[in-house]
Amino acid sequence: xSKKLQGKVAVVTGASKGIGASIAQHLAAAGAGVVVNYAxxxxxxxxxxxxxxKAGGKAIAxxxxxxNPADIQHLFVEAKKAFGRLDILVNNAGVYEFxxxxxxxxxxxxxxxxxNVLGLIxxxxxxxxxxxxxxxxxxxxSSVVSSATPAMTTVYTATKGAVDAVTRTLAKELGPxxxxxxxxxxxxxxxEGVHAAGLSDSDMRKQYEAQAPLGRIGQPQDIAPAAVFxxxxxxxxxxxxxxxxxxxxx
Length: 250
Hints:
Blueprint: E1 9-12, H1 18-29, E2 33-38, H2 42-54, E3 58-63, H3 69-83, E4 88-91, H4 106-130, E5 136-141, H5 145-148, H6 154-174, E6 179-186, H7 192-196, H8 203-211, H9 220-231, E7 242-245
Helix pairs in contact: 1-2, 1-9, 3-4, 4-6
C-alpha cells in the first residue's frame, strides 16, 4: 500500500476488534501513527498494536470509555503525548441492542445514545481542538440501518440516523477550519460482536444475503479501505457525505 498517510496521526475509537481493528491496521499500513482505543478489551487492543508494529507501523493502545466525557479528554491527551499531533479521528466505538417497541426502556435508550451519539460528538469536539492549522478528517462509522430502518431496531436506528445528521451538520460547521466530516455506513459485517450476538448463523444473516445484490455479508477489510480514502488527500473535496458499503443492500 502506498504511504499516503505518512506523518499523519489517527485516533480510532473502539479499535480492539472488528471494523475498528481493521481500520486501525489499514491506516497504519498507509503510514499513519495510530491510537488504538478500547473500553474493556486490553488484550484485543494490544493484539492490534502488536500486529501493526510487527508490520513496521506505529501504534499505541489507550483505554477510554467513550460514554464517559473525562475518559474522552484522557484519550486525546494521551494521543498528543505519544505522537505530538492529530490529523484523523475515526468515531467507530458503538453499541447495538435490538428490542421491540414494548421492551424499550430509558436505560436501553441512554446506553446507546450516550455512546453512539454523545460520545461521538464529544470525541469530535476534542479532535477539532487538537487538529492543526491544516485541518483534519473525521470519519463517523454509521450504519445501513439509518436508511434500511429494520423492525425491532428503533433506538439503534435512531442513533445512526442522528450520526448521519451530525455528519452533515458538522461538515458545514467545521469546513471553514479545513476539517472534513464524512460517514461510512456499513451493512452487516462479520465481526466478533456479530458472533457474540448470535447473528452470524441467524435468519437475519440469511435474509440479508438474500436481499444484498452481492449475495454476502461484509468482512471488516471490506470497510477499512474507505476509511483510508476518507482520511487521505484523495478525498480532499469530499465532506458531509455518507458512503454506504453494504453489498448493495438497502
